[in-house]
Amino acid sequence: MPVYFDGYKHPSSNKMSWKLDQFCCGCSLRTGTKVIGSLFLLGGVSVLVYALVEISSFNFRGGDALPNQPHPKLPIVSVVMSVVAIVFSIPVLFTSNINPNPRLLVPLLVINILSSLTVIAFFLYLAIVKSMTSGVDDIVGNIIIAAGLISGAVWLYFWLIIYSFYHELGAMKEQPLLDQQT
Asked: Taking CA atoms, which of 42, 70, 73, 136 is between 20 and 30 Å from 56?
């Protein structure tokens, strides 16, 4: 039976280490990193296309800096965030396919942990504020909060897969090659 989650203390330190041995469905961490990098790239491209279509449909009035829309800055922020997702997912795909260099995974690890914790904190805050103001009778609001918390947990799982692959690559670099052992 494979071990999916391994929380243990490293013998040389008192720090707790959280690593996975494989991606879901029994796939390797390399395959999981390829899937996650592809999902981030696909998501970044699709959000970029959608945001650019939204920006192109703005009705600018003679000389206004921002159009007369309910949330005019949202597509601009979406463009920036999608470009960041695209730029940071390309090294992940490069690392998992061509060059196993663990340093190329660090930017996505940093961005992904910040994003996942921010999403979880935002939806927890939203749940607290909603329950204090309108109660828990609104089913649509509860579904949105649950979906947000689940998506934050999925991002955290993706981070854990890439983090485990990062450590797997680091361990591979420390081991000598077979012909160097003799």
From this structure: 42
Q: How far apart are CA 48 and CA 145, in angstroms?
A: 25
Query: Structural domain tally of the chain?
Result: 1
Residues in the chain: 182
Say how far apart CA 143 and CA 132 lie, in whole Å. Answer: 17
- For residue 106, give its domain range: 27-174
Look up residue 25 and give its DSSP letter.
G
Instruction: Please state, in angstroms and as integers, the Cα–Cα distance from residue 91 to each residue in 16, 33, 86, 95, 99, following that order.
Output: 28, 11, 9, 6, 9
134 in any annotated domain: yes
- Is there a domain that residue 13 lies in? no
Instruction: Specify the pTM.
Output: 0.72
- Identify whether 179 is part of a domain: no
Specify if 12 maps to a domain. Answer: no
Instruction: Going residue by residue through the chain, which has 182 residues, state the pLDDT in tens, using 9 for 90 and above.
Output: 444 555 544 455 555 567 788 888 888 888 999 999 999 999 889 989 988 888 887 765 655 555 555 556 677 788 888 898 899 999 999 988 888 888 888 888 888 888 878 878 888 887 777 777 776 667 777 788 888 888 888 888 888 999 998 988 887 766 555 544 54
